[in-house]
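Let's practice the habit of predicting before peeking. Look at the sequence and jot down your guess about where helices and strands might fall. Then scroll down.
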Amino acid sequence: MAPSAPDPSPLQAFQAALVTRHPLTQRAYLGTIRDFLVWLAAQPGGHPFRFEALTQTAVQGYLDALKSRGAAPRTRSRAIAALRRFGQWAVDEGYLRRNPARQLERPTVVALAPTELSGKQRFVLKSLVERLASPRLTAIFMLGYWAGLRVSEVATLRIDHCQVNQRAGTITLLDAKGSKTRTLDLPNAARQALWAYLHPEAPHADQRDPDSLYVFTGQRAAWLREQGRPDHLSERGIEHLWGALKASATAAEWELIKTIRFHDLRHDWAHRARQSGWSLEEIAVYAGHQTKDGAPAIATTARYTLPSRAQLKARLAALEG
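Done guessing? Here is the structure:
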């Protein structure tokens, strides 16, 4: 007999604890835990669900089952991350005394080259941005494409941390990933787009709320301020704009860009910087890949600039005997 569906109560409570996580992360975690509970229900003593059944033996058994199904190391590594979060939540709520997934070692995952856009993909994206003619989206795109900013850094960029005019421009990113602060000189394309957004020649539909501290403001900025909450455009809001941009593509264009995420602009920036002669140290400092003491985190930057299979194939074709 097939195992019954998992008890929804622990899933619902766990979902409520994930409210601050990105929607894609929530979906991935909940999918893993739901699959784990279904597997557990088929094991002796696993149905109905009891938190006492959430043991290291059960967690390891589930991971072994994933491996026997042919799950890749990356999939099993993501499963461990979800199970660790679920276990820690159970500990924090007082359901367990210790996290059963805490000591699990993640399988070795071979690093893959981050996305490097093709010339055609870059052409399509820049064309879509130009056709949409949105000063806000243009500025957001240029900060990702030409300055390699993370979506979180774009979302929380403050107006008083932008020193931009018609000839030069710098931005300061406070408490960026890893609680590091850095000041960046902007490439001309990003500077011009940001200047045009902040100083429009005529009013436009997506201009910023002038009472906000942030560059990119949400639709409910005034209401959010009344609630004492940050009124900047959220990361989810930027991802929504990104999805709308791609949705404006023709069928042929869509096939080229359908899998590209906003974060892939950052990866592509790192590849282009490397190809332009930047050192790994220079890319690391500009991108914010630094340790707590400020030293460049070269290992992280190296992963960003790993050669793709296509690049290596081109090198093989040029190999002399």
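How did you do? The two ends are 63 Å apart (CA to CA).
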